[in-house]
Amino acid sequence: MRTKASQGRRGAGFSLVELLVTITVIGVVSMIAIPNFMGLSESARDAKDLRNAQMIVNVASSALAAGYPAENFATKEDVLDRLKEGISIRNGNVEVKFSISEMDDMDIQSAGNYVEVANGFVSLVIEGTKEAAVNPTADPSVEPLGDPPSQNLLVGPMQ
């Protein structure tokens, strides 16, 4: 026989079954959601590395166009090391510096996975295909235009 006091307390809490069902639902939802969030962060990291690699290729391209000797870019490590230190090219009263010094070592290393160097060519590689060759004579059907236009690459007076 139940008393009135025990009947009043019964409706105030959750049963064990209700708690187990709630915990199971939360577990299933988290098993689905957490890998998706991890994939988003990995995707963002890959996009950042690709942007940094594009910057490396663009800076290398600019340095080569300004007259930096292509033989100094013999390997990917040469390109990354020289651009990290900074390359200065002097043309008359103008000195131009090409650098990726704002990137930290981890960013440079990760971006280097998308950079390929061969025979004086610095390329951006995406999924095994060369997307952009830096060397202006990369296409054999294109004739070189002569000396790089270093005279037109004026940044400002040397201080």
Describe the fold and architecture:
The structure is a single chain. This protein has one domain (16-137). The protein has a three-stranded antiparallel beta sheet with strand order 3-4-5, with helices on one face. The chain has a two-stranded antiparallel ribbon with strand order 1-2. α2 crosses α4 (105-111). 47% of the residues lie in helices and 16% in strands. The chain starts with a helix and ends in a 26-residue tail after the last strand. The protein has 159 residues and is an alpha+beta fold. The protein is rod-shaped. The model is unreliable at 128-159 (pLDDT under 50).
Keywords:
single chain; 159 residues; alpha+beta; three-stranded antiparallel β-sheet; disordered C terminus; 16% strand; two-stranded antiparallel ribbon; 4 helices
Kindly report how far apart the N and C termini lie: 98 Å
SSE ordering = HHHEEHEEE
**Spatial sequence of strands, sheet with the most strands:** 3-4-5
Count of alpha/pi helices? 4
Structural class: alpha+beta
Low-pLDDT stretches are: 128-159
**How large, in whole angstroms, is the Cα Rg?**
29 Å
Q: Whole-number average pLDDT?
A: 75
Offer a quick outline of the entry.
Helix content is 47%, strand content 16%. By secondary structure, the chain is α+β, with helices and mostly antiparallel strands. Strand 1 (87-91) and strand 2 form a beta hairpin.
Secondary structure topology:
Layout: H1 4-10, H2 16-65, H3 76-85, E1 87-91, E2 94-98, H4 105-111, E3 115-118, E4 121-126, E5 129-133
Antiparallel strand pairs: 1-2, 3-4, 4-5
Helix pairs in contact: 2-4
